[in-house]
Amino acid sequence: MPKLIALLLSLLLIAPHKTEIPDSKLAGDVRAKVWPKLQKELKDKGFKTYNSVYIRIIKDISMLEVWVQSGKKYELFKSYDVCTYSGGLGTKTRDGDGKSPEGFYTIEPKQLNPVSNYYLAINVGYPNKVEQLKGYTGNAIMVHGHCASIGCYAMTDARIEEIYTLVYQAFAAGQQKIRVDIFPFRMEEARFKFYAAYKQDAFWRTLKPGYDLFEKRQVPVEYHIKGKDYAF
């Protein structure tokens, strides 16, 4: 009997820990409404299973893209118009500057807010490690509903219902972390020239390698830090 107890205890210790995903009646009701529709759209677009997702935001065209893993690569599933964001191009650097951040972020289940004052919300994880090293301030930067923003990326309620549900279901399927990459524009040379007056070229150039790698590989990229900048 002692050996059996010891075996059971060892199995409990090595059993995978199921991450708790914040939830609410509202979020559950939303899933019940939109998930069957999204599943049909996924199937119609050739996605055989639903696993990992990747989110990319392009500021100058107010676009949020949801990419879904298909085999070893990710494919674009849906694009959503961003209802509004504040501060124009250029990243957030301090609390109260009214800017919306640009950079490479990670969300975990705990960053879902199913009881937000802005309907449903996902904290993007600003400031990230690079921004912390640079001393950037501010917090609670979200992708949320209600189409109103001071530093966040606001969607219509109908759009955040789908985005939030896609993220929730990815976590429920076992994804531990979701990459959210935010760019001022599609990082092509013509766009750098077009926005030269913003004088953000040096910072934006640090984002370009990550953008280019994803475009080449169709797999979310991980960055490391060199000095106080992104490196890949």
Question: Could you please describe the fold and organization of this structure?
Answer:
The chain has a single domain (19-231), classed as L,D-transpeptidase catalytic domain-like, CATH 2.40.440.10. 33% of the residues lie in helices and 25% in strands. The chain has helices at residues 2-14, 25-44, 129-133, 157-172, 189-194, 201-217; strands spanning 53-58, 63-70, 73-81, 84-85, 103-107, 112-116, 119-123, 142-144, 153-154, 178-183, 224-226, 229-231. Strands 3-2-1-10-5 form a five-stranded mixed sheet, sandwiched between helices. It is globular. The active site is at residues 144, 152. This is L,D-transpeptidase family protein. It comes from Mucilaginibacter angelicae. Pfam families: YkuD.
Which helices and strands, and how do they pair?
Blueprint: H1 2-14, H2 25-44, E1 53-58, E2 63-70, E3 73-81, E4 84-85, E5 103-107, E6 112-116, E7 119-123, H3 129-133, E8 142-144, E9 153-154, H4 157-172, E10 178-183, H5 189-194, H6 201-217, E11 224-226, E12 229-231
Parallel strand pairs: 1-10, 8-9
Antiparallel strand pairs: 1-2, 2-3, 4-9, 5-10, 6-7, 7-8, 11-12
